[in-house]
Each structure stands twice: as C-alpha cells, then as structure tokens.
Amino acid sequence: MNFECIIYEKKDGIATITFNRPDRLNALGGTMTQELAMALEDANADDEVRVLVITGAGKGFCAGADLTTLGGTSKQVSKGLVTRSPSAGGIRSYTLQLQNFEKPIIAAVNGAAVGAGLSIALACDIRIASDKARFSQIFIRRGLVPDSGSTYFLPRIAGMERACEMVFTGDILDAEQAKEFCLVSRVVPHDELMNEVLKLAGKIAAGPPTAMKLAKRALYRGATNDLTSALEFEGYMQGVCFGTEDFKEGISAFLEKREPEFKGR
Prior knowledge:
Blueprint: E1 6-11, E2 14-19, H1 32-45, E3 51-56, E4 60-62, H2 73-78, H3 88-100, E5 105-109, E6 112-114, H4 116-122, E7 126-130, E8 134-136, H5 150-158, H6 160-169, E9 172-174, H7 175-180, E10 186-188, H8 193-205, H9 209-222, H10 227-242, H11 245-255
Parallel strand pairs: 2-3, 3-5, 4-6, 5-7, 6-8, 7-10
Antiparallel strand pairs: 1-2, 8-9
C-alpha cells in the first residue's frame, strides 16, 4: 500500500505504522486518519502480522488534531453548520479499531503525544517512551473537552485523580513524569527507542498467535468483569488453546528443553 501521510511496513511478523507529517509534528490532518484506518484493517486481517508498532517520523509522535484545518469551525458552529468536532467520526472509527485490534500493539512514543495523539498512544497495549517524549491532554487550553477516547482510557490507566489533573490543567508531562503517571511502562534513551521497541515486538511476534490474541481479549474483558466471569472466560479460552498445534509444540519444547517454534496453528 502507498500512503501519503503514514508509512506502513511489514517485516518478520511485525507491522509498523509511522505517522509521516513531521513538519506538523504528525498532527492528524490531510489523509492521515483515513490511511491509519486502512493500515489498521490490513494489519488486523493479515495472519502474518503478529504484533503492531505505532510511532512518528521526526520529532513528534502525534500532536493531535491539525488546528490549521479547524480555523473556521467556531464560526460554522455559531451558524449551526457544525454541531460536533469535524474529525470526530474518523477519530471514533480508528479509536475503536485500536481498541478492538486482535494483536498486541506497542506505541513507540518518540516525541510529543498531545491531545488525540496521546489518546492514540493510550489505546495501545504497551507504551515505551523516548526520554525526549512529552505528553499532554491539551484540549482544555483550546476550549475543548478530551476526545478520541481519552475520557475512557486515561482514568483506567492513570487513575481518576491524575486523569483529572491532566485534563483540568492541560499541563505537559516529560517522559519520567509520564512514567510516574503510568502512561508508559518504560523510558529509554531517544536513540535506542526503536531498537528497544523492536526487540520487544520480536519477542512477542515469536509467541503463539492464537494464545496471544485470546490472552489480550481475556485481559481486557477481565478488567471490566467480576472474578467469576473472568474465570469462566479463561476456561473457555484455555479450551481453545488446548486444541492448537502451538500448545503441543509448547509442551514438547518444554520436555525437550528447547525454545518453542510456534506456527500459528
């Protein structure tokens, strides 16, 4: 696939989506939202893709909505021509795609993750940050409320008190503060970011694909279920895994004291 505003690559079981508007700190504009949705659909459907990495070109991860495209919005709203964010439909679309993506997603946060850009990172399963990364729920400084799923993801990840602090102030957090707020799992030197992310992605890609998908589904389901329901769902998922060749390979590898070679069957 050839895209204008993203770079989409697949290699060794890892798909990588790179936001590619570096002159705008990868703000969501042009054809980016549509291209992101297309790439997510392709990666989710491709059995050879076992893990997805999302990052940004240049100095930014994603600076949120491109405000230069929203200049006339307030006037249009006052005239009744616009009743909601002009980008809301597209944002809802790919936010749901990220949330429902079957395979593990790693965000390699290389720079500013602001507004909807932070929402995209929060929708990923794992976030690793460069020491040059910055994070902000900037919406309030623009007279807006959080969107793109921020009101869903942020309290669940950072806790309600810290979510309120970020949303009400719009303050910018550096990478270490973001780690303190549980927005990222680790911070690495900027020049080592992609090496570290791809190392982790490669480790995940070497795992059993069916079990990986089901484990992800069970984790997110368990986060909103009671214990009894979680146990029942785990049992069902485990029954599916018992019927795979990868389960047999895992047991054989253990008994033979070698690394398993999972085939996705």
